[in-house]
Amino acid sequence: MPTTPVRLPHSGLLVPHTGYTVTSFTGHQTHDGVAFTATLRLNKKAIGVIQNAGRGGPDTFYSNTAGDHRQKHQDLEDFAALCTDPRGTTPTLDSVLSDLVAEYETSRDIARAAKRGNTLLRLMTDHELGDGPMGWPSPAAYTETSPALAADHERLRASLTEDEELAPSALAWWQIWDATAGRWIDVTPRPAHLPADPA
């Protein structure tokens, strides 16, 4: 297990180690979001589940053994306290659990696209708060692209910007998953107020 901080590729969360992982996910859409249960492991051993009732509430951890729930929860709190989110701040445990679930779901979707011979794209969108953009974008949509377009970013960029349904707004941009580099790469220009991702 790495002892130096690692930036998770899909959420951008900087973690002190990669021992905590989500390995399964079952969910369904509700009026207020997605209700789900996801298995959480520590160093490959299942320690409990992350759940959300789909009513707009936080993601919550539940231990798979009653006697050590408090200790496992404290260990997760300690882990979250050592994490750094893309804004450079310390996230809440709820946010960290959400990012771990997002890492699993995105990796799963990348693998599914690859089985079809395709590459995953994601639309990143910054959010506005009254006086302007927040500077903290998040994934808003996913789609797939063919091998031919994945290999030709100029053609891919043109196809995305010329399609009325896919063309990004002023606060959004498309990225493509680069499996060789293990990172997301911008396909269309990101908003000028946002810095480029570090290489």
Could you describe the 3D structure shown?
With 199 residues, this protein is an alpha+beta fold. 25% of the residues lie in helices and 32% in strands. It is built from 4 helices and 10 strands, in the order E-E-E-E-E-E-H-H-E-E-H-H-E-E. Strand 3 and strand 4 form a beta hairpin. It is globular and about 55 Å long. The model has no long low-confidence stretch (mean pLDDT 92).
Structure keywords:
single chain, 199 residues, alpha+beta, 2 domains, four-stranded antiparallel sheet
Q: In summary, what is this structure?
A:
The protein has 199 residues and is of the alpha+beta class. The protein contains four helices and ten strands.
Q: What Rg, in angstroms, do the CA atoms define?
A: 18 Å
> Order of SSEs, N→C?
EEEEEEHHEEHHEE
What count of structural domains? Answer: 2
* Share of helical residues: 25-40%
> Which sheet architecture does the biggest sheet show?
4 strands, antiparallel
Mean pLDDT: 92
Q: What portion of residues belong to β-strands?
A: 25-35%
Side by side, the strands of the main sheet go 3-4-5-6
The outline comes out as globular
Count of helical stretches: 4
Low-confidence stretches: none
What's the number of extended β-strand segments? 10
Structural classification: alpha+beta
* End-to-end C-alpha gap: 23 Å
